[in-house]
Amino acid sequence: MDRDILERNDPEIFQAIVGEERRQQAGIELIPSENYTYPEVLVALGSVLTNKYSEGYPGRRYYGGQTYTDKIETIAVDRAKRLFRAEHANVQALSGSPMNQAVYFALLKPGETVLAMDLSHGGHLTHGAPVSHMGKIFNFARYKTDLDRGGIIDFDHVLKLALETRPKVVLCGYTSYPRDYDYAAFKRVADRVGAVTMADVSHVGGLIAAGVMKNPLDLGFDIVTTTTHKSLRGPRSGLILCRSQYAKAIDASVFPGLQGGPHMNTIAGVAITLKKAAEPEFQEYARSTLSNAQTLAKGLLARGVTLVTGGTDNHLLVVDTVKSFGLAGNRAEAILDQVGITTNKQIIPDDPNPPLRPSGIRVGTPAATCRGMRDAEMERIAQWIVEALRAADDSATLNRIGSEVRALSLRFPVPGIG
Question: pLDDT for 351-392, tens place per residue?
């Protein structure tokens, strides 16, 4: 970005961007779905590729002048296939929601059934929440976690649901489930009822790419979707990875079924991200992300905090703020915002409270790890979270914590800012 041009011609927007840069630098980002992308990706996003319409696919475009866009998309596809060991990859999905929608429309007729995770137990809005358009078009049967057994998934119950509802797709994936999935068990359920297996690994796509968490494709899954901006550290986009037998239907569902021209600047950013994800430095980052989550969980548990499922196997935690602090999640989020720790309010399993005033918050380690924070910082963050939420109405304590958070944050630069 040519900052001088922007500052001269639209100072209001320029100042808002500068304000956001300062906010990110001076605070600690703990929202599990947010991360800092690479400076190289920011360059690609602001490049002349944003000028180009590229409807279609490499070698089969509806506009001329595609020499370099074809090259970029082909590189992105090849890197995605190699990194995730996929037979086919589509890199055009504009983000996570249309990515999943494209798969549904490729495989299902309206009214057909998908077996997916209940939203309050960790599933995503696009996994059939009643308020989503997909929940109105398709029939979603929802499995839950077993709260009496530490939040595991009871696969006898999942199989019972599958036999009752006969889904065409068995979907596993989460937005707020702190455990790993038993992909082999999901595949056994799907095989019993002749369903397609689909995993939405948007949150852990980078951890899978780095080899520190299991890859559903290695375990025989048919389709895997992932966003590229969470643990992968890329631009805001989506990948659809699948076995070759589904390639034609999925490509047609993305374009022309759901989208028009792809965002070629973003696809260039995805290609850069996938190259980075194959490097040893990224593997170390992924290992540290998991290690930091364990340290943060232990620090919170040691201070009497109630965590959904009692801990984590991945990069995120869900804190029951009502049980732990007597605070609704929206109130806890606001208090932590005040001291420079960014989280998001989060419903917990079978939450009696509404989504905008839920019983928990969700925290994660990808962004803090990206800045170089490790065990010592995670221990400090756990202390600050508990101290701040226990001092909700004590402005002096909150001001002190805010100063300490800022001092620590400024020691760890944000990639791309400066």
Answer: 999 999 999 999 999 999 999 999 999 999 999 999 999 999
Q: Within a 10 A sphere around the Cβ of 404, how many other Cβ atoms?
A: 16
Interatomic CA distance for residues 196 and 171, integer angstroms: 8
> Among 275, 271, 269, 259, which Cα is nearest to 93's?
259
Is 188 known to be catalytic? no
The torsion angles phi and psi of 65, rounded to 5 degrees, stand at 75, 40
**Kind of pairing between the strands at 60-61 and 223-227:** unpaired
Q: Which of 61, 81, 188, 236 is catalytic?
A: 236
Contact call for residues 268 and 36 (beta carbons, < 8 A)? no
Question: Would residue 225 show up in a list of annotated catalytic residues for this protein?
Answer: no
Contacts of 371 (CB under 8 A, 6+ apart): 36, 412, 413, 414, 415
What CATH number has the domain spanning 43-277?
A: 3.40.640.10
CATH topology for the 288-409 domain: Aspartate Aminotransferase, domain 1 (3.90.1150)
In the residue annotation, 2 being an active-site residue is answered as no
HSE on the CB side for 288, CA within 13 Å? 19
Tell me which of 144, 187, 214, 230 is the catalytic residue.
230
Pick the closest to residue 240 from 99, 108, 116 (CA basis).
99
Q: Could you say which of 29, 73, 118, 200 is catalytic? A: 200
pTM attached to this predicted model: 0.95
pLDDT in tens, 404-413: 999 999 999 9
Rounded to whole angstroms, how far apart are CA atoms 258 and 134? 13
Active site residue 55: yes
Annotated domain spans of the chain: 43-277, 288-409
